[in-house]
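quick one, 90 residues, struct below
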Amino acid sequence: MTEKIYPKGMYFNKKHENAPDFVRGKISIKVDDFLNWINDSPHLINDKGYMNFQMLTGGKEGIYLQLDTYGLTPTAPQDTTPPDEDDVPF
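---
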């Protein structure tokens, strides 16, 4: 997988100017958005049940999070939408 994938509902914030030196920043998760994204993206979970993220620097974002796709099997997302009654063959 070479496509860049950014987590929905998960954000990295730079450290507060008054924070001590050992603080690098803060990760915030908007739980509903993040859980919906995970539930809609089972193909992005590795065979051990993890989603791994990289913390990167660059561009106007400064520090940002990106899904680490190393080791993921390149598959298309599964359509989990139930079929319409007219599409059921019986």
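The chain has one helix and four strands.
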